[in-house]
């Protein structure tokens, strides 16, 4: 019996998430600033598109690598093309529509306490 088979009375549905602004900044840093192999994938997959569309007079090396996307370009990309283009920066609430009517508790994760 998995969690989906349990009657609703047996459990509470909850959600705990970070601030949307912290999530956005974290996604930017992790995918466009870090030098991890996964970051290189995002720079190639998304960074080249962002630079091509939102950076006038981009250098050839930036267009080829997708590296050096700045935060302003990233935000403009999200505003113009939608935050739902990738699950790493999609708002957490987008994953909850089917659970929302049953949500009993919602919390937030804070780093400052």
UniProtKB/TrEMBL annotation:
Enzyme type, top EC level: transferase
Subcellular location: Golgi apparatus membrane
Pfam entry (one): Sulfotransfer_2
Lipid bilayer topology: Single-pass type II membrane protein
Keyword Transferase annotated: yes
Parts forming coiled coils: none
Keywords in alphabetical order: Carbohydrate metabolism, Glycoprotein, Golgi apparatus, Membrane, Signal-anchor, Transferase, Transmembrane, Transmembrane helix
Keyword Membrane: yes
Domain of life: Eukaryota
InterPro entries: Carb_sulfotrans_8-10, Sulfotransferase
E.C. code: 2.8.2.-
Family: Belongs to the sulfotransferase 2 family.
Protein name, as recorded: Carbohydrate sulfotransferase
Species the sequence originates in: Molorchus minor
């Amino acid at each position: 019996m998995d969690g989906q088979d349990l009657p609703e009375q047996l459990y509470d549905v909850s959600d705990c998430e970070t601030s949307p602004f912290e999530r956005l900044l974290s996604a930017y840093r992790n995918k466009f600033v870090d030098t991890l192999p996964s970051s290189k994938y995002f720079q190639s997959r998304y960074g080249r598109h962002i630079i091509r569309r939102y950076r006038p007079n981009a250098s050839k090396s930036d267009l080829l690598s997708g590296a050096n996307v700045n935060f302003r370009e990233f935000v403009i990309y999200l505003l113009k093309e939608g935050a739902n283009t990738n699950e790493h920066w999609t708002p957490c609430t987008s994953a909850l529509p089917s659970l929302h009517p049953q949500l009993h508790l919602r919390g937030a994760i804070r780093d400052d306490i």
